[in-house]
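Instructor's aside before we start: the two examples that follow are unrelated to each other. I chose them only because their records fit on one page, so don't look for a connection. First example below.
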Amino acid sequence: MSKLDEKIAAYQEEAKKLGLDLPATLIEKVTRGLGPSIYKKDSETVACSQKSEMERVKTNFLKKKLGLTADDAALDAAIQEVCEKMGSKNPAKKRALFYALLAKKFGKESVYA
């Protein structure tokens, strides 16, 4: 099993543990799309407590990657919702799962088709 396959399996297991309703194929495609960033501890996770991190997620992922044009308040609310869904006691929110939840919320799974 390759390192990538190990990461995908770990993310799928974590999604089950957290009770996230995410298709395994979406988790796999988002993980592959993140490339080498999944192997670096800091870039593998999302810090909901860091305002600058949330701005990057909004700008680089929601607006650029997913092509969303909703107002910032709606995007911020969606990010906050995903933060809460992944658990406030979970400090290491995996970026692949975070992005998969956002893509699913906005019906943009096709970006990873």
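Example two begins here.
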Amino acid sequence: MKVRLSDYNLNWKVLFERECKLLFDILKDEVVRFEHFGSTAVRGMKAKPVIDMMVLVKDISTIDTYNSIFEVLGYDVAGEWGIPGRRLLRKGGENRSHHIHIYQYDHPEIYRHLAVRDYLLKNLNEVYAYSAKKEELAEKYEETRAYSKAKKGYVMELEKRALKYFEELDGYQVIKILIDRYDENSNLTENDMDQLINEMMSNIGHPDPDIRDALVYSKFCEIILNGKLTVIQIRNVMKECLDNLTYRINEKNNDNVFKRSFSALFLHAIVYSDNQEKFLSEMEYNVLIKGSIDYFINEKDVRGFVDGKGWAHAPAHTSDLIVECIKSQYYMKNFNGEILEGIEINLARLQNDYIPYIDDEEMRMSHIVIELLEKSLVTEQYIVDWIKLIKNKLETTKVKDIIYYRKAKNLNDFIKSLYFGAKNHPVLQKMLITLIES
């Protein structure tokens, strides 16, 4: 077969997508996702006009049962063709148009193929060099077999450079590449998802908000809420986040708070998802809520917005987590006392030891009480008596200095937030007005 090299053609992407639809109609639920790879997947690359594509499937052992259908539709069924665990289909006869590589979703060859493709997509000089090499060899070798053999050494070196490139990337770049792949396909192999999760967990407390907030946290929420994680993956994330809640817990006013606080946000996303899908056991839930309450009580770094680094906001994040925990089917009233104790302790804390809450932390804490009331887990009178007790403790302070007044401001702002949140509890609102005026 004579070597035919073509300039990059936008229609190659169309041909790939058309073949995806045809193969999906055959394999249906077997398919995890499709990948376009090889030279026709790289803009600007000269290539033989043959579409290389991967079909990633749940179980490769089922694919041979479709061989008769493939043959009727014009595919040449080539079996493993030298790679254990692969099924190769070819289309087009002498005028070859497609090479279709079917792999089980966790096959190690997948990463190698995608690493080369993604490396070329990010390194235009490599695209130019590879295209030039192809043209050189195509002039020297007319037949495809000789051309491919001569090109093999260059391709192997290219693969080495691609794999080395990805090994040396920092966390941000790795996450971005994996997220871009996820955004393009709305899916990842289990191995790729494991890698993405590991990179996310390594950067969960990154001091750069562009990495921590915009990239890691927002994408984790999207992935878990769209049901893209296995229960095992979720449980592994949950365990690591719970461990993170105690990471250097006695320190404050440094960047370690981000790791703890954003672990609380990840846990919030997990509990929210569990409240919809019910995948946690009661024992797992109890471990989670106990760890969350302990963190609420013990976190001493209560800064809100940190200049240049974004939101730490530990009291607010943990309050949101506890509200979601209260919504769970497993929540029990015996947690009430510790949770209210946590609110009391946090209301007595000041940012940088002297600044009252200024970023709505007290409002987020009031949401906890509202949720307890909405679920009839506490009475209105109980909450009023509890607030009176906190006020009385504060009033026994011997020295009425600036610290006293700022703690009093935290408490009064909390009562006001509770008042506005208690729209379904008019009797409580009247009692809260009395407390505010007293």
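DSSP finds 17 helices and seven strands in the chain.
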